[in-house]
């Protein structure tokens, strides 16, 4: 590469995973090869407004975000509908967008649509794949159609929630333990494990803060949780599996375990398991990746029941890159360093952009394209 690529790294975001994004962005930035990339950072505030690069860098370096954002907004024309993305005017020379925005507006296809409008390559899956993978209900529908095993569930909405009691759901799902999940959230936000009607009512109220669609799943009895990282476009490859052993008093891998305090957990990298089971999980993950139309990267989360049967939990299309995040760690034990992983991710993003640019959005006569104008006209004349 003769010249450096100009990378725009977007971090923060209007989601419950704002702070997780900031930690991920720092790790990615530190690991990037500065001989290959010039990186400009852009903070998306908690209310969804993009800050200019100067203010974003100050936040990135640890200055008080709330104060910086408040001062910046005082100078903005908030009556202008384009104000939330006005900082894009600084991005004329950007070669590649690297979103590190987890959750709402980052993984759901919104930023991907913006990058598409700007006609710039970017990291990760496209609009439709991002949106489908972010919605747990849509994900499960696609997984079921593709024959990829996942846990049974009931879809509860703000319109029908009165139709289901805790006892009815436990009977329908054949489980005394239920998991209540907002359909469009990540990192265990809006997710609760419940064992009685009182806990279910509280969990439902919590999940409805984040989405009007809520999944109620039957819980497995103390399942083993394992994870696998996927990398690539048309021909993706899978890392070795990683696993976790929770502290004795914990019964599931929640937000606190993932991002706040992992001191009590034991990471199995790689996870120890029978080769046949590992191959089954790898196959399920790759089939799900293709069925969902994913490219670039995804972490797939699995649960294994007491009979050794694996269930796909969910895909994470922009997984965390914090100090305790599993996606980069699983590639480390699979032979790809953090810096080389970032290089590959950028290359896959560039390749997918070039592939998509080969598609036509105007009418093209297939006959003329395939046969050439002279032969085509002769065929038409017959």
What does this protein look like?
The protein is an alpha+beta fold and 382 residues long. The protein folds into three domains: 5-123, Rossmann fold, CATH 3.40.50.20; 152-218, Dna Ligase, domain 1, CATH 3.30.1490.20; 224-336, ATP-grasp fold, B domain (D-amino Acid Aminotransferase, Chain A, domain 1, 2-Layer Sandwich). It is built from 14 helices and 13 strands. It has helices at 18-31, 53-60, 65-74, 110-118, 127-134, 136-146, 166-173, 197-207, 255-260, 275-291, 326-332, 338-357, 366-371, 373-381, and strands at residues 5-12, 37-44, 96-100, 153-157, 178-182, 191-194, 213-218, 224-232, 237-238, 242-245, 266-268, 296-304, 310-316. The strands form three sheets. Strands 8, 9, 10, 11, 12 and 13 form a six-stranded antiparallel β-sheet that branches. The chain starts with a strand and ends with a helix. 41% of the residues are buried. The model has no long low-confidence stretch (mean pLDDT 90). It is found in: Cytoplasm. It comes from Weissella hellenica.
CATH architecture of the largest domain: 3-Layer(aba) Sandwich
Structural class, by secondary structure, is alpha+beta
Low-pLDDT ranges: none
The tally of beta strands, per DSSP, is 13
Radius of gyration using CA atoms only: 23 Å
Protein name: D-alanine--D-alanine ligase
Binding site for Mg(2+) 1: 301, 314
EC number: 6.3.2.4
Enzyme class: ligase
List the keywords.
382 residues; alpha+beta; Rossmann fold; Dna Ligase, domain 1; D-amino Acid Aminotransferase, Chain A, domain 1; 3 domains; six-stranded antiparallel sheet; four-stranded antiparallel sheet; 14 helices; 20% strand
